[in-house]
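Have a close read of the entry that follows and walk me through the local backbone shapes. See right below:
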Amino acid sequence: MTLLTASVVEADFKIVPLHMPLPDYPRVLRHQARDGVVRAGFTIHNDGSVRDVQIVVGTHPAFNSEVRARIESWRFTPWPLSDVNVESVSFDMPFAFQSRLRRPAMTSSSSRQKLSCGEFLKKLQSIQQSDSRPSLGEWAMYFPKTVEANYKFFQGGISYNERQRVMATDEAKLPALVESCQKSPASDYVDFLKS
């Protein structure tokens, strides 16, 4: 899933939701009172439709089904296709289900659990692609500023260009972050993002 390409740097539009109900807590799990997470990838096209919904990670099939069904029903304000505006935008969005809330939340950086550098490096290693570098769509969820920019863009709060600038800044930090984490595997990886 490619989220950042040099050919779209001039694009400047906002994603504005028209119909975007959040998934409900699955009825079949209510008696079990279990928590869960789902990370879903999907593409919003310039006609406002959502396609290519994929469950990247899910802790239970009932959570996965609910997230997929809701995302497939989402609609957004169309944007004009031009030489500078992209035809589609891909997202990788996490949802957290908590039994006491009965509704998932789109997670943000404020809900991030502490992750040591050693754990962070293991996660990055597990998502590396053949070119020995994780793709933006895979590692973006570990960067609080990128998660927040995606959330704001998705809610229509910032433009495509603003989102891309944040993501490019975080992507540039990845090599130094890996180097710092290799030297200090017990530290919280986010501590190295502040520098």
